[in-house]
Amino acid sequence: MSISAAIPPNCIIVHNAKQGIMSTQTENIAIAQTKQIISQLLTTWNTNTNRVTAFFNKYEDDFYLQEVAPGRSRAIYLLGHLVASNDGLLSLFGISEKLYPQLEELFLTNPDKAFNEYPSPAELREYWKKVSSTLADHFSKMEPSDWLSRHTKVSEEDFAKEPHRNKLNVLVSRAGHISYHMGQLVFLEKKEPAF
């Protein structure tokens, strides 16, 4: 058996050629750096989810029925879209089934105004709060090895070839997704008349 066959995948091994030993100190530094990067990405995630929460708690419900720009989605649709998208992380990360699977058809597979009835802004705020707190609770318990493991939409075979298809990469992508839609929602605040 070769040495490389005995080493588990994703194992960090540093060999000091001068001393002919593996360095635990270097391993510890690499682990600390990995934890720091994950912490920074979680801070970005939390900042973005808090911005959405603050935005949708700022005005009366009627305000969120406006389109962000003429012919574009309404703010309330974007909130539902973000709830449904983040709710999908529960199953994607293998945490649980979606909490609100009924939102997928309303906010992910169809555009705004495809249906006559949608959940109210108050309902969507509660859904957002529940999904966000469930994810935050789970994220706070994840170790670096959890973050760097595959998500449920990638097979073990594909993950072996493409280890970047991990949960941390999904978190980065979804944090960007939230920022993108917050950028759209800012247009509504600019429409708000000054007093």
From TrEMBL:
Q: Which Pfam families match?
A: DinB_2 (PF12867)
- Give the signal sequence positions: none
Per UniProt, residues of the DinB-like domain are 47-184
Q: Which SUPFAM superfamilies match?
A: DinB/YfiT-like putative metalloenzymes
Q: What is this protein called?
A: DinB family protein
